[in-house]
Write the structure tokens for this entry.
Amino acid sequence: MNITLNNIDPVNATITLEVAQADYANEVEKSLKDLRKNANIPGFRRGMAPKSVLQQMYGKSALVDAVNKLVTNSLLDYIKEQKLNILGEPLPAEGEQEALNFNKQDDYQFTFDIALAPQMDVKLTKDDKMPYYVVQITDEMIDRQIESYKTNFGAHNLADAVAEKDIVKGFLIELDENGEAKEDGLRNDDAVLMPSFIKDEAVKATFIGAQQSAVLVFNPFKAYEGNEAEIASFLKIKKDEIERYTGDFSFEIKEISRYTPAELNQELFDKIYDPGTVTSEDAFREKIKENIAAQLNPESDYKFILDARKLLVEKAVDVQLPDAFLKRWILATNSDRTPETVENDYSRIIEDLKFHLIKEQLAKENGIQVDQDDIKEYAKRATRAQFAQYGMSNVPDDLLEKYAQEMLKKEETIHNLIDKLLEDKLIEALKAQVTLELKEVTADEFSKFFEQNKD
């Protein structure tokens, strides 16, 4: 097979493949032999049909399949061998393709349009001054985190009298119009309610302050103001049964459970951090401040790469791209797009493409790579961050290892981790190349940056 590359301009080219009969003849022969083994043709025993019959029935389809397979594989192999950095995928050339006649021709010619990635020479230097935003860690933020820790590590304890947020367990009995236990009425010896969920303030007030063994009479339908989901949940019935239970019930309190936040003491410090790491409230607050700052660092980096992207793309404004090919390729590979939507979205698509090409160039120039150890360690860091969100900062390494291994069982997760790792390494490289201007901002001010970028 003869394959030729024709460069039209720096970003557009064609590849022509000249296919001769000798290139595909063996594949067609093999295909027909395989068909003969299993072909069930009337008048012939299985596997005994003459070659001429098979040729007549399946010869053309075998030929077409063999040629298409040969052309596809040869085209991809050629692109790989020649190390062509193409954009999108090859498309059949427009206006250059001769009509093929598989009934009469033995030799064929195929021409494909390809788009070549432009040479990128975009850099950031110390002459580029870029802001790097650091969020102020306030006492209020630290206080919120402490309250979260106290709540997460609190415990349920028995109480003597009902408070609004308590969990109250009791014995529920449906009553008749005389206030007596209804014969064959609904009964539940493990009913549960929380006064805070009761909508009717008068009914709620009857529960507040009630003690164990107290018997309260109320109407659940009125108490929850017709909220079918809450009524059905409380009575443990289906929603379509609610209309049968609109009367009074008695509720005998069996247990009052109250959630009490953990105290701010050494026991709490040791649950959150390795025992002995923190030994005072001041040290605890300082440690929390460090953790909050560490959690916000990725946000600062993300803001930095957004600003860097904008600057880099601006520097690549004169880079030539194969616009006509790209628009054609987008239409060919996205059935939900129209020429109008492509035109409307093209500037954004090109900006994304330019930044992708710039990142590839910068990663190569800076020797940025990701290996298996990087991926494994990053998975552990991601797992540690997930636990930290729930106040678990001293997770054993073996548990982190276990969860990280579970993450790495998913191919999609691995690809996402690699992309994130490459971006993180690129961010660190770019931060070292520019002149960073540190700027401290409030959390609200920082959030507005992302709202602006979203717009």
Q: What stands out?
A: The chain is about 50% helix and 20% strand.
